[in-house]
Amino acid sequence: MSAANGPIVAKKTHKHPLDQLSGDEVEVARQAVLKVRKAHLIFRNIYTVEPPKAELVEFLKAEHAGTVSADTPRPPRQARVQYDVVYDDQSHEYLESIVDLATGSEVNLKRVDTGVQQSLTLDEFKEFNEVCVESEMFKQAIKELDLDEKFDIAIDPWPYGGPDVGEITPRYTQGLCFAKRRHENPDTNHYAFPLPIIPVMDTNKKEIIRIDRLATGGTEDGLEYGTADKNVLEHCRPAEYVPELLDIPLRKDLKPLNVLQPDGPSFTMSDDSLIEWQKWRFRVGFTPREGAVLHDVHYDGRSVLYRLSLSEMTVPYGDPRPPFQRKQAFDFGDSGAGRAANNLALGCDCLGVIKYFDGMLVDSEGRPSVSKNVVCIHEQDNGIGWKHTDFRTNRAVVTRSRELVVQFIITLANYEYIFAFKFDQAGGITVETRATGIVSVVNIDPGKVSPYGNVVSPGALAQNHQHIFAVRIDPAIDGHANTIFTEESLPVPMNPKTNPFGNGYEVVRKPVTKSSAIHASPFTNLTVKMANPNKINPISQRPVAYKFIPSPSQLMLADPESIVAKRAAFAHHHVWVTKYRDEELFAAGEFTNQSLKEIGGVADAVARNDKVDNEDVVVWNVFGLTHNPRVEDWPVMPVEIHQLELKPADFFERNPALDVPGTKNLSSVEIGRDENGTCCHTDGTTNGTANGNGSVQAAPTSHLQGTGSIRVADVNGH
Amino acid sequence: MSAANGPIVAKKTHKHPLDQLSGDEVEVARQAVLKVRKAHLIFRNIYTVEPPKAELVEFLKAEHAGTVSADTPRPPRQARVQYDVVYDDQSHEYLESIVDLATGSEVNLKRVDTGVQQSLTLDEFKEFNEVCVESEMFKQAIKELDLDEKFDIAIDPWPYGGPDVGEITPRYTQGLCFAKRRHENPDTNHYAFPLPIIPVMDTNKKEIIRIDRLATGGTEDGLEYGTADKNVLEHCRPAEYVPELLDIPLRKDLKPLNVLQPDGPSFTMSDDSLIEWQKWRFRVGFTPREGAVLHDVHYDGRSVLYRLSLSEMTVPYGDPRPPFQRKQAFDFGDSGAGRAANNLALGCDCLGVIKYFDGMLVDSEGRPSVSKNVVCIHEQDNGIGWKHTDFRTNRAVVTRSRELVVQFIITLANYEYIFAFKFDQAGGITVETRATGIVSVVNIDPGKVSPYGNVVSPGALAQNHQHIFAVRIDPAIDGHANTIFTEESLPVPMNPKTNPFGNGYEVVRKPVTKSSAIHASPFTNLTVKMANPNKINPISQRPVAYKFIPSPSQLMLADPESIVAKRAAFAHHHVWVTKYRDEELFAAGEFTNQSLKEIGGVADAVARNDKVDNEDVVVWNVFGLTHNPRVEDWPVMPVEIHQLELKPADFFERNPALDVPGTKNLSSVEIGRDENGTCCHTDGTTNGTANGNGSVQAAPTSHLQGTGSIRVADVNGH
């Protein structure tokens, strides 16, 4: 890279159009913006521009045809640069530049509506603390609490949430405050000591403008109940989770369970982002907002998905006492899942043979900042994949289900989310979310209980809340022209003509012809099929498809007229079907921070009333968890798991896992018999080598055997 | 054991009251019955009588107090003997004797209502084939099909299902018929060649009394469409699943994944049935009807469940064309899950270190017949159990979730079910079912499709059907007097007094005071809590409880007035709450075979209108799967998984998995870095030995670190 006067351009590379930026490319983009924008800039994000689908698809066609060479035309490689311009009066303007990396020049500039607020940055998080320390208003509030000097104050900066109706809000940040025991391990859990104040900062002016006082009452107290502001921590008790601070010994009786892959993993990663495993082939991207993103997912050479991503999550709290209506995070839009991604650790976050890869982020000066090990890829065993025993011969054929997991984990102050895309050998893709971490607590008076949450530790009320997620599925079922069908199983009243004995039921399929929202309907077994109406399965004569059953999660509980609800229109339906548009990626719209309502999200996309049958269509699945905390969720909650399962439905001509070898795992050991115990009746095809492929097990099935076949010749009387 | 003239008694043993019978004990019971019943007997089952709860609880109290000795009074050990008496006119009477094993004498005799039919036996299965071969009626039907002599006939005997209204039915068995390619591997898949006839046998007379002809038409044909009876197999194609018959090679690129437990398992099994693992302690029983059953489940010395079992499953088919209304199996009541249990194979059905145990069954002469390895017990890793990273210090504490699995697998002709009770370290118990095996198909004419199913192979229509399961939960939450609560999360309209900003919602708890049925209600987040109202959690001040969220599965689709629906009243609600009664174990009643309606099942139990709050109460959870087959379900379907999760809810005073060591697994390997790669920042407490317990990992969390604490002294101005 040249640092001279000419245009700074990235080294000529043939990175894949979907690859993350290299450090060099980040630097090119940064310089390009600095050159044309002579002002104080605060950089937020610099990341790869995904090419318009129309352009990218052409390149991908060549790629899949195996005809890509150095001369193959490819979409221009570009970077998106998101940054603030800070003016002398400390006001900010939010700009977004597109930089062409080959020429090192800005090719597009977007000035963002001043009515919206962009996501929080790490610098703003840090500044919150500093501003509090300097704030007389904050110091006074702390003084009034008359805390013991054995405590420090720990502040979790939060997005401000939705402003109240009529409230004038420049850029704000709020802070949830806790006391932290001093002279202790720095990892002592401060959440056990919640303080009943929330300082509010004018983020750009770097000034605490208000201290919100929190009610600490119980069931018997009104919404506005004011704390005595004294002795608020006297009844609180430590609640440690780091092992050296625990008041009980760690379990000694958990013996090691090791996952060993002596021949290495079954997947390959090449070309920086291309994963191939068990007939699957896809690319892994990583964005500051979404974390890991999957692209161009194929199975056995056939297209399944164009793109798969976590799109948004909102966490509204159900405590009606002000200002808790503003405890509503949008963890993707307000913070950024990629920016909050954990650096994963070998042997801790997954077992076996792991491939990690790094995320490219930037610091506030726009310089590349590599976040190590933000995504891990590994295989795991998920029990039996399919099994059948012929009771006549006792021959059992059983395969195990191996999965490939692409995982990332994010920390948002108190909470953790573990996201995994899991591929299986039967053509399935599961999007798994695990919620863990520390539930959000507020102070409650001694001896009281509350209808708004559960007392999980003395003085600590864990407030009832919801987590509502949106997954964006851009299907490409054997091509980009797809139709979404709903399929319901409905009762048919007993009648002589069509249901004489009453056992019949009907399966009703309906195409979605216009962009729409769909509610989950478990009692009709509502299934969503993403089909290619132009390609018919030759066996079933139905369109090839992938399906999922939308989880009938409870949706947004807040009053539809509330700010909380309006900010998250996406959280009002389980499935949204929209016509594809480039860069329409975010269920709640691009700007969620301090939003008053959802703008540019899925509800707006649906409102376009586009034709969506036999079109390039996008499906958004919304699911959630109403979390009324248990005491067992304290101090760190056991994972709550949700799975969205995408499964082939007449996409293939039979079970695609039929060719998975039913290999006996010879490393397994039986207790009380020798290692080659007599339990396992292996048929003649077993190759006998440890973990060899291609062998098959036959296990006797008791008490059903012995009913053999009858010869046609016999019954025919020959 | 004495074979002399005196009473034959079992050797003096101190087997646990819940243990399966020994071979000696079976023999004692058999002899006791043979002695008093001078007739031709066909034995069905001989198994342990579980003592009345009132008696057993006293013994268990002593056991838990550690005061059991040889002199401790214990409930009399008894065997239940179920058998047919065959009279000279070939009529059968079904009797049930209770034999006291200490005295070797019958202490109770029950004559079963002649209006019911007991389950099918293996002998009856075998006889079905023999009777068909001898039947001129059957031979004629086969002859009319004019099959190629390259075929054999394979018959799957099935329960007769529900008779039609007004039909007079002695004991019947029906047979689903398929053609099986000759001169082939005996494991060639005959289900690919379905024949359009169902022979019906008078089971006691051993005579084919009717051949039902099956429609083979499509959407355009009426219910009664008759097949041409010619060339019904011409368009059928082989659909093999045993690997040596596959027309494609097995995958070569799946590398071994071994689970090694170098120090052995973390559980112990003692006393024939007692399992102890990670603070859990319970007994595993095994019955001919239910398969594995769990008893007396405790965590850390506290009672959680008295008994946990699979109770029933019904599989109604939704094809309205007669006689498919009689394709409705009750796999527990008609067949018996224990008797259908697979003999599991090391390294095939689970990985790692496995403890198998055997089931005691009997042959038709009442002699003990040990079914080997019907239950397996092993540990597995289920990913991250809990995790939190303090963004201030970057200290990550992460534990993995280890599970203990008690698994059994049943084969019922074409279908397989995998049942597992899974315990975790956070106090959770999951009842997992996996459906696999071969979908039931019937013949369909060339080129046709049908509204009643999906063509999964040429000529093979996989009919739409449901699987509806019932799990019986006998809670003992810190004692036997429990109350069931429902808890729903409900919106609250925005209003100035209680919900000024509209974000609030309310959680409504209601006790179930009378025996009742409850519908799942996902959109109100309906949660069922099994609580002990006499014991209050000192932290939350709520009753200690376990909870589950009933899956909103689609329930019985058949018309409520149909025989199919009436036979399975249990399948009409998701949760049933009943007052405990000894031996009330079966959701659809004891006798399901050929039943016209459910008798003595949960609906009848609820109709007693018992008081159930603060009583010994039983909870039945019903869930299911509407299975409209995919082509991918053929020829053997990938597992469909359902999980029922029982979780503590204010049972403990914090996360019970808090003391699980966050051990780094040192056998894990990173691709592209050395084995001690730099990724994993381990804190000072790590002991550094391979897979040692007690160590804890700290992994850096990127981009959130650095916002430290504030000293109270500083803000207080000291």
UniProtKB/TrEMBL annotation, chains A, B:
<dbReference type="InterPro" id="IPR049948">
    <property type="entry name" value="Cu_Am_ox_TPQ-bd"/>
</dbReference>
<feature type="active site" description="Schiff-base intermediate with substrate; via topaquinone">
    <location>
        <position position="415"/>
    </location>
</feature>
<dbReference type="GO" id="GO:0048038">
    <property type="term" value="F:quinone binding"/>
</dbReference>
<dbReference type="GO" id="GO:0009308">
    <property type="term" value="P:amine metabolic process"/>
</dbReference>
<feature type="compositionally biased region" description="Polar residues">
    <location>
        <begin position="695"/>
        <end position="708"/>
    </location>
</feature>
<keyword id="KW-0186">Copper</keyword>
<dbReference type="GO" id="GO:0008131">
    <property type="term" value="F:primary methylamine oxidase activity"/>
</dbReference>
<keyword id="KW-0560">Oxidoreductase</keyword>
<dbReference type="GO" id="GO:0005507">
    <property type="term" value="F:copper ion binding"/>
</dbReference>
<dbReference type="InterPro" id="IPR000269">
    <property type="entry name" value="Cu_amine_oxidase"/>
</dbReference>
<feature type="compositionally biased region" description="Low complexity">
    <location>
        <begin position="684"/>
        <end position="694"/>
    </location>
</feature>
<keyword id="KW-0479">Metal-binding</keyword>
<dbReference type="InterPro" id="IPR036460">
    <property type="entry name" value="Cu_amine_oxidase_C_sf"/>
</dbReference>
<dbReference type="InterPro" id="IPR015798">
    <property type="entry name" value="Cu_amine_oxidase_C"/>
</dbReference>
<comment type="subunit">
    <text>Homodimer.</text>
</comment>
<comment type="similarity">
    <text>Belongs to the copper/topaquinone oxidase family.</text>
</comment>
<keyword id="KW-0801">TPQ</keyword>
<keyword id="KW-1015">Disulfide bond</keyword>
<feature type="domain" description="Copper amine oxidase catalytic">
    <location>
        <begin position="257"/>
        <end position="658"/>
    </location>
</feature>
<protein>
    <recommendedName>
        <fullName>Amine oxidase</fullName>
        <ecNumber>1.4.3.-</ecNumber>
    </recommendedName>
</protein>
<dbReference type="InterPro" id="IPR016182">
    <property type="entry name" value="Cu_amine_oxidase_N-reg"/>
</dbReference>
<feature type="active site" description="Proton acceptor">
    <location>
        <position position="331"/>
    </location>
</feature>
<dbReference type="Pfam" id="PF01179">
    <property type="entry name" value="Cu_amine_oxid"/>
</dbReference>
<feature type="modified residue" description="2',4',5'-topaquinone">
    <location>
        <position position="415"/>
    </location>
</feature>
<feature type="region of interest" description="Disordered">
    <location>
        <begin position="684"/>
        <end position="708"/>
    </location>
</feature>
